[in-house]
Queue: 4 jobs
Job 1
Amino acid sequence: MLEKTTIQPVPAGFLEKKFEICKRGSTVSREVLAGLTTFGAMSYIMVANPAIVSAAGLDLRGLIIATAVASMIGTLIMALWANLPIALAPGMGSNVIFANIVVLKMGVPYQTAFTMVLIGGILFTILSVTRLRGMIVTSFPASIRIGIQCAIGLFVAYLGLANAGVVSYASGRPSFGHLSDPAVLLALAGIMLTAVLIALKTPAAFLISIIVITIGGHFVLGVNGAPLTPAPTAWISAPIFPAELFMPFDFGNFIANFWLVLPITLYFFLSDFFGATATLISITHRAGIMNEDGSIPKARQAYLTDGIATMAGACVGSTTVTNFVESAAGVEAGGRTGLTGVVVAVLFGLAAFFWPLITIIPPQATAPTLILVGLLMFEGVPEIDFQKAENALSSILIILITVVTTDFMMGLALGCLSYTIMVAAQGKWAKLTAIVLVLDAIFLLYMYLTATSMQ
């Protein structure tokens, strides 16, 4: 009689133990495909972010490397610690504020600006482990948050138009660029192409547009008679991290100008905080991996990752690092675990070796991405309650002042103060939460210091 044997279960492999791939209804091949899809959807940041931040006087090549390193760090932490299919990279909006508002308009040295980003990340990290996180979400006026998002979106779009020459200042005032200029025509073609790709829900629409217009730029001559897209000196080269972007902080100057830089530091924190919250909720819901009570799985690790990524990013010369909503593309492709993020991080690392190609991309190729990304930031407008003056007028005031004057801080200050005044006039005291009153006090002090410094 044969001895009865029992079949032992095959021990789960390392990937299954680490990422619970089967438990979440996915496969390794599906996670890899999702990672490729997510990277394709957000890889434009390797081009757009350095192009924007270089306006602050920083080396373009160094910023390309810094963008790749910061994206790798943030995405790997999210993947390995929170096990979520969400990729991180320097956020659009914060990079524009960093370069064009803080450094160029306010005259703040980039070392101090990076210190502001670091402090914003520290605040995010601290609040991620306390109950104050939920209190801020519920007590901050939605109209102000949406006004900020839309104002920055329009400003990003404006930069794209100006950089490509579609908006011209040749006459001393803003006007439409000359249609006889081949560079303007190329930029307009790029805008139309990008819009069509987005309408068709084409994967990696922004990346495809950048590549097509960059190739087209090689056959279009600029004002100096040279092609808009010069021939690359090399196709691939080892990335060398720039020393000036490692720990680029100036705490002394930050402290010396504390009250002037505090409002924008809070902006870096709040924009990252609300952006991360919205993205985490959206992506985990679409992936079907939310907890039964509707909460985000490993929420504390996920929030901490965002804060830590911003601090780490600032240490390597990056603006605010945040969750990218483009991660939804990977989720649609089947991504359910952190393995998706590991693939994205590896691809960011490989992309850094192609910095010679990225440096030749002309502004006409990045402009359509900036314009369309900026316009897509208007998605929150339907959430504004236009039946209530305090909601509609405060958000519109932020948008109007920012776009007309390019002074985002003054637009934000007037939007917040007008909200408080209208709410108080109606006797709606419950809406005047602690965070609203604190921000009002800070903005009043900022306006006073700004006025006295101009005398």
Job 2
Amino acid sequence: MNDESIIELFRNRDEQAIEELKLKYGRLCFHIAGNILSQREDIEECINSVYYDIWNRIPPDEPNDLRIYLCRIVKNKAIDKLKYNSAIKRNSQFSVSLDELAECIPDTRQEDISAQKLAKLISLFLRTQDERHRKIFIRRYWYGDNLSKIAEFFDMNEKTVATYLFRTRKKLKDYLRKEGYYYE
């Protein structure tokens, strides 16, 4: 079933919408949440919470791209669950990847920066990168994959992946600086 049909099921308040969403994107949701959360129960709770959220959001939301819409919600829910679970201790691999990215991206909550504008600039920047660098960056910072998984996926050495990521983050920081976002 295509995305438009699934969205239409949501609009009609047809419970089959959730089943179709699970069928089409369940594995992707599990992958994203699993890269952030370590316990299977937490992953399942997160994904169920996402399905409930989407049921309540569509309508009024009208996502242009259901896959991206769903991935964003899964990622945010999983991060919220991680924060809740690790309020005292931070030892997650995902926290490490967010810390890496924080070195080059300004915090929109503390600066006078539009999160949408910043996201658009990052997207424009990634389009200027060659395909391999762009895909490695996205695997690390969107999907939350660890270095060994990325290295295996691209048939590369982990140190090479780390170098690619370091250089791409440096280029991103320089790009954002040229666009008026100075951040240290």
Job 3
Amino acid sequence: MVIEILRQEHRNIEKLLLVLERELSVFARGDRPDYEVVHAVIAYFQVYPDAYHHPTEDMVFEKLKVRDPAATANIGDLAAEHRRGAEGLRRVARAVESVLADQELLRQNINDIIRDFIEQERRHIAMEERDFFPAAVKALQPQDWAEIASRLTDQRNPLFSEVVEERFEVVRRHILQLEQEAEAERSAHC
């Protein structure tokens, strides 16, 4: 169940990467992307992965270290991967803010920063899906999964966490709705 939750979160992240990629293609062809959509995607990435997704992965990874140290050695430093993703996101946020502040920047540089973030996130997710999750499924015992699940329940049951979860679901739906509206508006102008 824990792995299914993580995989679903990866699918949600991929949807947001697709939204960001579509807005990037608008920017790359010289049009103005919907910055409200871009900001919503950035806001989601600034909070949700580090608040929920990565801590869950960290718990699984810690259990895997005990059960199969060779697998974790093969996977590498998961925490460092997550930090690289956060740094990439900070670069994206700074680049978008620079564009909005009308600073002189090469369109290609902005494109490269955002493209790098998207590709880095996809490589990271692919590694987790290919190496980390299968190793965890193979090595962890039912009691490991039960302990992780109980810690997740404890982590998300307080009222604040439930409110936060609800807020992120609203943000996720809002992002997808904004993207549909932006796409329809661009199509109407073509």
Job 4
Amino acid sequence: MSRLVVVSNRLADPRKPAAGGLAVALGEALNQTGGLWFGWSGTVAENGTPGEGELHTRQAGPVTLATLDLCSEDHHSYYQGYSNSVLWPVFHYRLDLADFDASYIAGYRRVNKLFARKLLPLLRDDDTIWIHDYHLIPLAAELRAMGCKQRMGFFLHIPMPPPLIMAAIPQHEWLMRSLFAYDLVGLQSEADVSHFKRYVRNEGSAEEVDDTRVRAFGATVAVQAFPIGIDVEEFTRLTQASEAVETYESMRAEYSRRRLLMGIDRLDYSKGIPQRVRAFRELLDRYPENRGSSTLIMIASPTRDDVNAYADLRQELEGLCGSVNGDYGELDWMPVRYIHRMVARKRVPGLCRAASVGLVTPLRDGMNLVAKEYVVAQDPDDPGVLVLSRFAGAAEQLKEALLVNPYDTQGMADSIQQALQMPLAERQARHQKLMERIREHDVHWWRQSFLSALQSAGA
């Protein structure tokens, strides 16, 4: 078996439980081959030189963790600039929030070249290289230019936008052409695959070689959907652990006379959080029987507070929550409980289990694993109902959820009411089917399917 090399913007020690499901899943494969995980260290060297960075290596059991420092100029242009102020908003369909500063792309290319230069001496001839996410789209092209012949795959964790939105990015053809340096490109959904193929047909006169392979720009790449899952067994254990049970019991005691609706997100404009609060307001207005009996708990953990778009979002959300509470609240009932801080992961399953309705309503999302975690956390004898945005990648799999359009305030309020009124037998039937699909396509299936397809694509 060839050694697995994983490359991502950030990395985690796969031995630590707090590393999360993705790190654990990748860690399994890395452990099997004595693999290498390469990425940014998280350190910003204030006086460093652009295009340079100190490399650090350490062992985590049989896995080598190799990390690279970035200077402040590279961090600003590559990470804050091109990755998070161009690619993130555009790939989530928010052209209005993109900052197409011409200096950003130079830093993005410079850091990808730096990654390639530092990674190359660490590689073996028979390595299998798996590169992750939008920060590192051109990394394979940089490695190929340096003579790298190894099998390489790429997985995009965020959505692939439609061709016309992608075409708004300056030098978009260079960006998409660089994906043809890979043997396999993995995307979250069939919709993403369709967007990719339409782009390369329109812009690169692509030919479809077969069901998965596309030829354009003088190269051939396999493109497939690999919807990422969660570690069901690990999350089930977390649900049964003392912290989650304690959280569930305290929530049930605190809200014994209420039905809980739960939203757990990062505070990001892609998550549709203000739209969710407006839908809850509409619910209270159109279905007054929910006044005093239903409480929306909104957990929006901090993210990128130094970016104006996020500061504006926080201000908007706090205004909306205050307005609902002011207009509908009673002395003994607060309609919305808004929390702007991180909640310990060990307590998340307890919060999910206590909620009669899970609200996962992003405006656009690559997958959204909170939707799957909510389902797994439920009591199968008395499960809650998942209300899921049709614009989340998870909607392709989780068809038994109540699928909603987060831009349709009235329609979303009607669906929340349907969830609150749903009979037990229907809730059980929907939950059972959702669980079957989540178990079948868990994070281990995702990893094995991708690596198997990569072996075939690079053969």
